[in-house]
Design goal:
Largest sheet: 4 strands, antiparallel
Helix content: under 10%
Number of helices: 1
Number of strands: 7
Strand content: 25-35%
Oligomer: single chain
Order of helices and strands: EEEEEEHE
Structural class: mainly beta
């Protein structure tokens, strides 16, 4: 029989909340997908991925919200603008775009 000691390590848990709005697409007009992150203590890295899982890097249609980060409220909002030429190439009505959030601080 061995003498065991319980060890406990306190680890800070930094949780943030991500809210993305559903967007129903109408051909021929721009649509904005919004991804809001709250509970942040520093601006986060936010990216969008298309229905194929490819990162969308075009800064003309993606705003990561870092410049509008509100430190006092811990909120950052990123947007993806789906333009008509992008919308026409979406393969099916249930295609999913993803908002990916990575903490810069943790």
């Amino acid at each position: 029989e061995q003498n065991t000691t319980d060890l406990e390590t306190v680890v800070p848990l930094n949780v943030f909340s991500v809210t993305a709005d559903n967007v129903y697409i109408t051909p021929g007009i721009d649509h904005v997908v919004t991804c809001s992150i709250s509970g942040l203590s520093a601006a986060a890295t936010i990216t969008f991925k298309n229905y194929n899982g490819d990162a969308i890097t075009d800064t003309q249609i993606v705003d990561d919200g870092a410049s509008s980060f509100n430190n006092s409220g811990g909120v950052q909002t990123a947007t993806l603008t789906l333009k008509p030429d992008i919308i026409k190439d979406i393969p099916k009505p249930t295609s999913t775009y993803k908002c990916i959030v990575q903490s810069i601080k943790y």
